[in-house]
Specification:
mainly alpha, 7% strand, 2 strands
Length: 143
């Protein structure tokens, strides 16, 4: 037999929960998180939970010449495959070429991105990490 007083324990599956029970549970969660957030704020150089932390990227590239050559070859293969697929999709001859291949600091990369931008994350096996591909917005628009 259910009681009229709200229970502050988490509800079981399929149980109907009143608004007052939800508010009490939120108050308990907020009260238990407050000391943790204050301790987190007290540590220097750390952002509070839910806030972005500032990342410091190294000024130089960690890619050696051999890895850069492999990465450039992968980019060229991707461009050839993209040109072939676009040619089939658009039913016309299409040529794409790699205009530049550079490593640069993340801040300079971000400053060079147009607004609005269409960024795509790509992983190249067996290489570790994720690459960002900045596609011009006119090309990325759905047709």
């Amino acid at each position: 037999m259910p009681s009229d007083t709200p229970s502050t324990s988490p509800p079981s599956r399929g149980e109907t929960v009143t608004q007052s029970v939800v508010e009490e549970l939120l108050a308990q969660v907020g009260a238990s998180d407050a000391p943790a957030n204050e301790a987190h704020l007290a540590s220097p150089g750390r952002a509070p939970a839910g806030m972005a932390e500032r990342c410091v990227f190294p000024p130089h590239s960690h890619f050696g010449p051999t890895l850069l050559r492999k990465l450039r070859i992968r980019h060229e293969n991707f461009i050839r495959a993209l040109a072939a697929r676009l040619s089939l999709h658009l039913r016309l001859e299409l040529g794409l070429q790699l205009t530049s291949f550079d490593t640069l600091q993340f801040q300079k990369f971000i400053e060079g991105i147009s607004v609005p931008a269409h960024l795509t994350m790509i992983g190249f096996e067996p290489l570790d990490g994720v690459c960002l591909l900045d596609v011009p917005p006119r090309l990325a628009e759905p047709g």
